[in-house]
Amino acid sequence: MRLVYFASVREAMGRDGEDFDPPAHVNSIDDCLTFLAQQGAEYAAAFAQREKLRFALDQQMAKHDAPIGTATELAIFPPVTGG
Amino acid sequence: MIQVHIQTERFDTGALLRPLHQLGGGAVASFTGIARSDHNEGRQVSAILLEHYPAMTQAALEDLATEAQARWSLLGGIIVHRVGRIIVGEEIVLTAAAAPHRAAALEACAFLIDRLKTDAPFWKKEIYSDGTAAWVKAKDSDTARADKWV
């Protein structure tokens, strides 16, 4: 799947996205974050305050415990501030 | 008639509203959001940098407008949101609703801006006159207002 980052998450990661092949035991967005946080210091730092992150699966807002299913894009970003 | 525009250019609220006057209703309500002259910890805001999620934004705003149209039987609705660099005093966003009578137009217009604030993938960064910058934090009061419409 494709991971995409926005705003402060994009800045913390130093890139706007990357490809990610979730292992078989990674089923939910929470699982993705837990797995990724073990893959490097920048992930651990960017995802440290999980309650301050919001998500979209295939361009639809999703809760942190949503199953990733067959989604091809997971967006990770801070709470939105438009308007 | 639903129109959604995401653009870097400035817009003219009056010109955008005029087509809504021709839909046969008696009421057009609109909200224009402006980049506010503001201070944050002693720093003067000079501009706003607006980032968005291009693959998602248009559909998210169209979903909101469609929901408003169904809920208030609107004759028309417009959402315009700018992205990129916006100087203090310039317009950021427009929501507008046309309906046979004022109650539906006013409520639908408020619904559109309240829900846009929590449901549409935009992020604001404040640029200060000293050259520094900081992301704007989401407000609990915005979530409370959006939740009123559930």
Explained architecture:
The complex is a heterodimer of chains A (83) and B (150). Chain A is built from three helices and five strands. Chain A has 83 residues and is of the alpha+beta class. Chain A has one domain (2-77): Beta-grasp domain (Ubiquitin-like (UB roll), Roll). In chain A, strands 2-1-5-3-4 form a five-stranded mixed sheet. Chain A is globular. The mean pLDDT of chain A is 96. Chain B is an alpha+beta fold and 150 residues long. Chain B has helices at 13-21, 54-72, 102-119, 140-147, and strands at residues 2-7, 27-34, 39-40, 43-52, 76-82, 84-87, 91-99, 122-128, 133-135. In chain B, strands 3, 4, 6, 8 and 9 form a five-stranded antiparallel sheet that branches. Chain B is built from four helices and nine strands. Chain A binds chain B through residues 4, 6-8, 56, 59-61, 73, 75, 77-83, and chain B through 33, 50-53, 55-56, 59-60, 81, 92-93, 113, 116-125, 135-138, 142. Chain A: InterPro entries: Beta-grasp_dom_sf (IPR012675), Mopterin_synth/thiamin_S_b (IPR016155), ThiS/MoaD-like (IPR003749). Chain A: It holds the Pfam family ThiS. Chain A: This is MoaD/ThiS family protein.
Task: Describe the protein's topology.
The complex is a heterodimer of chains A (83) and B (150).
Chain A: E1 2-5, H1 7-13, E2 17-19, H2 29-37, H3 41-46, E3 54-57, E4 60-62, E5 73-77
Parallel strand pairs in A: 1-5
Antiparallel strand pairs in A: 1-2, 3-4, 3-5
Chain B: E1 2-7, H1 13-21, E2 27-34, E3 39-40, E4 43-52, H2 54-72, E5 76-82, E6 84-87, E7 91-99, H3 102-119, E8 122-128, E9 133-135, H4 140-147
Parallel strand pairs in B: 1-5
Antiparallel strand pairs in B: 2-7, 3-4, 4-6, 4-8, 5-7, 8-9
Helix pairs in contact in B: 2-3, 3-4
Protein name (chain A): MoaD/ThiS family protein
InterPro entries (chain A): Beta-grasp_dom_sf (IPR012675), Mopterin_synth/thiamin_S_b (IPR016155), ThiS/MoaD-like (IPR003749)
Pfam family, one (chain A): ThiS
